[in-house]
UniProtKB/TrEMBL annotation:
InterPro entries: PRX5-like, Redoxin, Thioredoxin-like_sf, Thioredoxin_domain. Keywords: Antioxidant, Oxidoreductase, Peroxidase, Redox-active center. The lineage of its organism: Bacteria, Pseudomonadati, Pseudomonadota, Betaproteobacteria, Burkholderiales. GO terms for molecular function: thioredoxin peroxidase activity. The active site is at C55 (cysteine sulfenic acid (-soh) intermediate). Thiol-specific peroxidase that catalyzes the reduction of hydrogen peroxide and organic hydroperoxides to water and alcohols, respectively. Plays a role in cell protection against oxidative stress by detoxifying peroxides. It is an enzyme of class 1 (oxidoreductase). Pfam families: Redoxin. Its EC number is 1.11.1.27. It comes from Paenacidovorax caeni. This is Glutathione-dependent peroxiredoxin. The keyword Heme does not apply.
Amino acid sequence: MIKVGEALPAATLMEFVEVEGNGCSLGPNPVDVQKATAGKTIALFAVPGAFTPTCSAQHVPGYVAQAEAFKAAGVDEIWCLAVNDAFVMGAWARDQKTAGKVRMLADGDAAFAKATGLTLDLHGKGLGLRSNRYSMLVKDGKVVTLNVEAPGKFEVSDAATLLAQAKG
């Protein structure tokens, strides 16, 4: 498992873009993790799946509600990662009203989850290999804090915990 002080792995996530912009076309766009984190402070959290109960009712809404507080604490971007495709993450972003607050990034084949060692095996529950629930503060591509949840728990990866660490 990735540790505090280590660099994030080389990986490409996908982001569904609703509005065509500078260098971004409509639909899924690649996000090179190393390039996108260079020189930035990122509040990154990962969930087992889009539209799942805890993720939709508590995890994402907490980060959306605290987006301005994260910016005030020096965080450039908030990322939500899940082992889903970019289309699902885009639909979930619309549902959760994350625009301008939280980037909803797809780790469709779990490459990032595998590379960080933060996978969750839910094959017996019909969900396959997923990401564990966690949060981390990343500065210039390196992990500064890491909060990994025990299976089935939501106690340390919430927005309030990571915000306190970002302010610390």
